[in-house]
Give the backbone structure.
Amino acid sequence: MLEKVSNPIHPLANVQVKKLEITAKMKEQIAEQQDLLQRAQSKEKVDKVINSMNEFLKPSNTHLKFEFHEKLQEYYVAIVDDQTNEVIKEIPPKKLLDLYASMTEYLGLLVDKKI
């Protein structure tokens, strides 16, 4: 009279779920690749702007140099004399960045510690 149902889920339903998981992973990988491509394009644009600025500064015997501030994890620009390799100006000034980094570190110590 009554038959016992041993497997209520059809194998086809399992296949569809797996396809959806692969599609989500593929979309994530595509998004990551697009992000990397945009970064590469923006890096090329930055390089192009730097080269044009260096060409503009050539008559004044100076060039731009991008330096990385370790504590803030950000770049700043230094204008360097071609003949003496002396830094003429930093934008923003490194001392100001150092001060900002030490202030954020000090504030972090005050706020992050439990009393």
